[in-house]
């Protein structure tokens, strides 16, 4: 199985080729120029893997949540490649990829069975977040959502993942969304604030999803903004009167 994965969800740009369990990745932290960088990175990774677009089984991409612009860039690129090569697409949660990457870079996290709370800064004093099984990051314990930091804490208490009296929350923490004091005050067992989303983790998660029949056609690919209604209302408020 060969899967080509692309991500521009946050402040990074990455492309990876998954080939029978082996992964090659090109990764660069870049706030801008994603559009200019992507296709050369695709060519680079395919060349290193001695593969062509016609030889892959599917493409994979982060469906979100994340930066509106970043999601649109990656999804548009994947749709274009998928249409050109007549290949299906496997959408992957950016937060599950963030959780998987944090565990991959911190193998000691698997020493105790704690859940991973992946969080991205959603601006407007909110975070995109989801809770995942550290041993199986593709398994969501709490599905992706956007919330104020104090609502995240309430959801964890309600789900009995933490207790209000605990001096240290029995969870693992990954992602820049943890910069908010209400989350930092949870004092998680382990914290990786600078965790990034990598295409190699999207590719590995997509391989499992592919086996489960989760691929879609390019024209059916939809981003998971989680904030569609809020954004629409905001645009309505700022739209000039006719």
Automatic annotation (TrEMBL):
Pfam hit, one: TsaD
InterPro entries: ATPase_NBD, Gcp-like_dom, T6A_TsaB
Domain Gcp-like: 30-153
Domain of life of the source: Bacteria
UniProt similarity note: Belongs to the KAE1 / TsaD family. TsaB subfamily.
Family annotation (PANTHER family): TRNA N6-ADENOSINE THREONYLCARBAMOYLTRANSFERASE, TRNA THREONYLCARBAMOYLADENOSINE BIOSYNTHESIS PROTEIN TSAB
Protein name per Swiss-Prot or TrEMBL: tRNA threonylcarbamoyladenosine biosynthesis protein TsaB
Gene name per UniProt: tsaB
